[in-house]
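S1.2 Input.
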Amino acid sequence: MNCPYCKSENIVLVDGEYVCKDCGSVIGPEVVPPRVKQISAVALRRRVVLILLEKETKENVKRRYGEVVEFYITKIANELGRGDVGKVAMEIFRKLDKRIYQGKSPRVIAAALSYLAAEQIGFYVHKQVIAKILGISKFSIRDTASRLRRYVPRIIENS
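S1.3 Output.
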């Protein structure tokens, strides 16, 4: 770099500005290229997982509510390794009135029905296990199960 005034090559960087040592004129600021932001592997993996979850959600939006609940009940039964839990839960769901579970998430309904079905069969499973499978709170399962428990005995008696 040369000084545009005295044509000297004796230029130094002082406080972020280029200064000619011979004539003392300030040539200009130091230009620093922008840093390239690198994405960590963890952030990239998290983004991929979110994309997969969004894709699953978009597909589920196209389905009917009952199909989505059935999908999640099957998923829970497969993870627990107990097909009978899924069968009993689906039987209970088909006999429930829509007004009972209206406004609830299909994941929460499926989890609560699976929990109640396992309870009826005599298979002990903790709410936290089911909550981890579907990625929901064990407290939402507790609240929904206690609400559904009022109607489940009548459904079984009518069978």
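S1.4 Remarks. Strands lie at 11-14, 17-20, 26-29.
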